[in-house]
Structures are given as structure tokens and as C-alpha cells.
Amino acid sequence: MSYTELKEKSVKELQTLLADLKAELFSLRFKNATRQLDQVHKIQLVKKDIARTLTALNAKKEQGDK
After folding, report:
1. What is the pLDDT of residues 46-65, one digit of tens each?
2. Is the pLDDT score of 32 beyond 60?
3. What is the rounded CA–CA span in Å between residue 46 and residue 56?
4. CATH of the domain at 39
5. Is there a domain that residue 23 lies in?
6. CA dist 42 to 15, 45, 51, 57, 63, Å?
7. pTM (predicted TM-score)
8. Residue 55 is inside which H or E element, if any?
9. Range of the domain at 52
10. pLDDT for the residue 63
11. Domain assignment present for 33
């Protein structure tokens, strides 16, 4: 997901997306620990999406969009 797409979302949508991404990251890490994950690069992709989402969320909060 690109940052420009995230900038268009509301704070509520970003918070929901962040929760979903964190749950996905937990699942991927668990699968990796149990050797069930074949595509380990997906962990890095989800971590980058979380960082982008947090950046967009913090920018929205600074602007006062609630």
C-alpha cells in the first residue's frame, strides 16, 4: 500500500488498518517460528506497511483531523 493511498484515509480507517497489519505480522512471525512460512520476505513487507500507516496516522493527528 502506498503512502498516498494512506493519506486519503480517515483516522479511524488508519487505526483499523494498523490493528489488522499488526495481527497479520503476529501471524507471520508465528508461522515463521514454527517453520510453516515459505515466503519470509512478507514479514518485511508488512513491517513497512505498518511504518507507512503509523506515519500517515501521526501526520493526521498533527493536523488535527480526528
Report:
1. 999 999 999 999 999 998 85
2. yes
3. 15
4. 1.10.287
5. yes
6. 21, 5, 14, 22, 32
7. 0.90
8. helix 41-63
9. 3-61
10. 87
11. yes
